[in-house]
Structure formats: structure tokens, C-alpha cells
Amino acid sequence: MSQDHDPAESHSHGHGHDHPHDHSELGPMELRVRALETVLAAKGYIDPAALDVLIDTYQTKIGPRNGARVVARAWVDPAFRDWLARDATAAIASLGYSGRQGEHMVALQNTPDEHHMVVCTLCSCYPWPVLGLPPTWYKSAPYRSRVVKDPRGVLADFGVTLPESTAIRVWDSTAEVRYLVIPLRPPGTQGLSEAELAALVTRDSMIGTGLVPSPAATP
What's the CATH number where 121 sits? Predict the structure, then answer.
């Protein structure tokens, strides 16, 4: 499902987002998980520090790197890009990324005239095989509510400003369909290899809340 947004005005449906570094209140399931972690740590069954490292690895390193490779391949291989548009599930699986939470994928390809953003307004459906664990803000009630009604405002919270002429479409993930945004290839990358291109791609750019930085802007 998608919501079309006129470039000149916000859509009337609601959903919101705090600054990306803010943490919303935990939901019931997260509270139960935190409580279980506390009990297991107190009994010496788990090492909280090791658990944090493991979660960070899957959230910020392993998962998003899979999606970044998909994006880089789409940038350098027109045939693969077309395959993504026709059958993203099969195209992504051809690179070895498939499984639960990624059975039915749709690739949303950004253009200068159209920018895509992804949300799950009901819970936190997310394409784990390509993006790993969802970030805290993606699961937060403020992001889920405001992004549909004020996508430009949400983008501004992430430091992204798009031309008024660029239409914004917000897509609602479900248990049946997950989305992967294929961001625009940044300028100044013509001579880079596929691996070097993949290193530029960020998790947020594949959700639609960020843009891929040019090599000159990458530290």
C-alpha cells in the first residue's frame, strides 16, 4: 500500500517521528523482553555487554550490508535493476538474501521526481534479510504516525531536504509485503567499484529517511 503526497502539501493521514536519536517509550513486548534480559543477566545466563554487541552487529553491520549490496548491484547492472522492478523477491534471493520477513519483497526505486519512504503503521514489519534488525525509531509510535501525514517534516528531522518538485510516496509494510528503497546513486561515483558503492549505502537510505552521501561527503 502506498500514500501519494502532492509535492506542494502534506497528506491528510497521520503518523509521526521524533528526532532519529530520540527513543520513544517502549511498547509492551519490548518491556517484556527487557525484563527477561534483566532476569537472565541477574542469573548469569547472559552477558549484557556481549548481547549488546551481537544486536549492534545485526542491526548496523550484517543486515544493512546485504541491502547495500542489492542497491549497488542495481546501480551498476541495468538488467538486475529491471529484474528488481519486476520481481524483487527473486532478484534479491539471487544474491543469497532470503528467508523469513523477506518472502515477498518490493523494490521502490527513487528518481529525481519521486522519493519513497517506508513505514509499518500497525507494528514494525521490516525486511530482515536485507536490512537486519529494525532501528528503534522505526518501531516508535511517533514515527509510525507522523510519517504518513508529514513526510517532509520527518525527512527534515533526519536532515534531509528534497526539492518541492519531488513527490513523496509513503509505503505501508505488512505481514505479506516488505519494501526496500533503491536510493539515487550519488554524483561523483562513476569510477567506483560495486563494493565501493555498497560501502556508501546507508540503512536509512534504504528505508527512505536518508540519502546516500557522495564519496566527498563520506568521512
Answer: 3.90.330.10
